[in-house]
Design goal:
The chain is built from 17 helices and 21 strands. A seven-stranded antiparallel beta sheet has the order 7-6-5-11-10-9-8. A seven-stranded antiparallel beta sheet has the order 14-13-12-18-17-16-15. A four-stranded antiparallel beta sheet has the order 1-2-3-4. A hairpin with a 2-residue loop joins strand 9 and strand 10. Helix 6 packs across helix 10. The protein is globular and about 80 Å long. The two termini are 25 Å apart. 24% of the residues are buried.
């Protein structure tokens, strides 16, 4: 349905609809992952016996439960709400008003597109993730669902506008004005004018995908997966990798002396980057971010295509991430926490919180203005953390560094695994942790100016987060035993969805008096802030 097409009347019979007949097939894949993969691992790593061949049969009860749930699930599209019923003996019924539905996300993998179906996720402002997930609907049924939601919200908007117009007319009459003049000058209620497609705010090409892939934090993920698989299947012992590497080093490697290590490091880095580039391309291929009707619309994915919407009014927290290598490239990543995505079930859903997976730093101010103009009003007036926080961090670094040094000496003393030259590395952890504490303290700062609260911290990866006073849910001051010893406290500012950005508002190791003063000031400003939906 386009914005210029008339809204067709609803089916008066309110017919109950079923899911697509292939729904059980798509529910089978998660069950196979949950049951068969562990069963195969047990089969290959176990020593003897054929009892493992019966393990896949454990999937049958779960499969029957899924078949019963999908077979009995029905949904109806009424004039005002979506009604979902499940079960025969124990019936469940869920009513979701159209006005509460914030966005409808469609996820399509290769098999979905082949069968012309998709997984539909409906989200509200409940803060608990998807309110309902329909696995799966045909594309025609998905379009009918979108049309019904648009029709219901449009009708509710007209009713609200007429009610507001009537109240305005009564107020005009009480003020001695002519209500007919108010109605004559009022904007007519009718179908919205067609709006041309908005240009993308962020669009990623292959060069930007490559810049995402070279981030060490992302390129080390394949290394962890490969190491875990090698450890699980005993590849280190089967191929005797330690002996092979030792023989290669004793033989002189490639014959270039100290350059061998550099060549191996470069080869490993290129291999990890290649794996990371494959994963990044599958996740963010053809990524586009548009602002349409006060909603950010995201499209991404190569094999599994995802279409998601993020209403501006649901954004609770904005977090800007800068890794070391991205700072050299002049790039940043922008992540948002929303009211309906307070927690995620898997990594794929976590990627939906990236409003801009990578964007030039020069475009950050413009993107913040599109999210909320008050966020980019001016540069925050940063306030440094107290000097006592640095002293406490360095004392902690000394304790950890000494323990690591003692552990290294004990390993060298009671085993023959380490050469004598390794003792020179004993003070290295202490030096690194001491330097890290000072570097982190110099970049930690907070700002409380006007309606905005900002926090900046991080070491190799720097993070800067912003929130507005009307989004604050609670403000807590916590001080444990060691905090009281240093007369310090931590200030926690909670929103409805800040945890999904990976950066919570935690002002740790503040002076106790400063933490209480900030708590009082934030509470007062949050009470005075007028809640705005835009």
């Amino acid at each position: 349905m386009t914005e210029s097409e008339p809204l067709a009347p609803l089916d008066p019979a309110e017919k109950a609809h079923r899911l697509h007949c292939s729904s059980l097939l798509f529910r089978l894949f998660p069950l196979l992952k949950a049951f068969l993969v562990p069963a195969l691992l047990v089969f290959f790593v176990s020593s003897s016996g054929r009892w493992q061949l019966w393990l896949p049969l454990a999937i049958l009860p779960a499969l029957l439960v899924e078949w019963y749930r999908l077979r009995t699930l029905r949904y109806r599209l009424t004039e005002e709400e979506l009604v979902i019923t499940t079960g025969r003996w124990f019936r469940g019924e869920r009513h979701i008003p159209y006005t509460r539905i914030q966005n409808i996300d469609l996820v399509q993998g290769p098999l979905h597109r082949l069968l012309d179906v998709g997984e539909v996720r409906l989200e509200t402002a409940s803060g608990s993730g998807a309110e309902a997930t329909l696995v799966v609907l045909s594309r025609s049924a998905e379009r009918d669902l979108r049309d019904a939601v648009a029709r219901g919200r449009y009708a509710a908007g007209i009713a609200g506008s007429k009610q507001g117009l009537g109240a305005a007319a009564r107020s005009a009459a009480e003020a001695g004005l002519d209500p007919t003049q108010l109605d004559a000058t009022a904007e007519p209620l009718g179908e919205p004018m067609p709006v041309p497609p908005a240009p993308p705010i962020v669009a990623l090409n292959f060069a930007e995908l490559a810049r995402i892939a070279v981030d060490p934090g992302r390129s080390l993920i394949p290394l962890g997966v490969l190491f875990g698989l090698a450890w699980e299947f005993d590849l280190f012992d089967r191929f005797d990798l330690r002996q092979r590497i030792g023989d290669w080093v004793d033989a002189g490697g490639f014959g270039y002396g100290w350059l061998d290590g550099l060549l191996v490091a470069v080869a490993v880095f290129l291999a990890l980057t290649l794996f990371s580039l494959i994963g990044t391309t599958l996740m963010f291929h053809a990524f586009e971010l548009r602002l349409v009707d006060d909603q950010f619309r995201i499209r991404r994915g190569l094999l599994t295509k995802v279409r998601a919407t993020v209403p501006r009014r649901r954004i609770q927290l904005v977090s800007v991430h800068e890794s070391l290598i991205h700072r050299w490239m002049g790039r940043i990543r922008v992540r948002v926490g929303t009211a309906g995505k307070g927690g995620f079930e898997d990594e794929d859903k976590q990627e939906e919180s990236w409003l801009a997976p990578l964007v030039p730093k020069a475009e950050l101010a413009g993107l913040l203005r599109k999210i909320e103009p008050r966020l980019a009003a001016e540069e925050p007036q940063w306030r440094a953390f107290p000097r006592a926080a640095l002293h406490r961090a360095r004392r902690q670094a000394v304790r950890i560094g000494v323990l690591l040094a003692v552990a290294l000496v004990l390993v060298w003393r009671f085993t023959d695994e380490l050469p004598d030259a390794s003792l020179w590395l004993a003070p290295l952890p202490l030096i690194v942790l001491w330097w890290r504490a000072g570097f982190s303290h110099r970049h930690r700062a907070f700002a409380l100016d006007g309606p905005r609260l900002a926090l900046r911290d991080g070491w190799l990866t720097r993070r800067t987060s912003f929130l507005l006073m009307e989004k604050v849910q609670s403000v807590d001051v916590y001080h444990g035993f060691f905090d009281r010893r240093w007369r310090q406290a931590s200030l926690y500012v909670d929103t409805a969805g800040g945890g999904s950005t990976g950066h919570d508002f935690e002002l740790r190791r503040l002076a106790f008096d400063l933490a209480e003063a900030l708590q009082t000031e934030i509470v007062q400003r949050a009470e005075q802030a007028r809640f705005r939906w835009t």
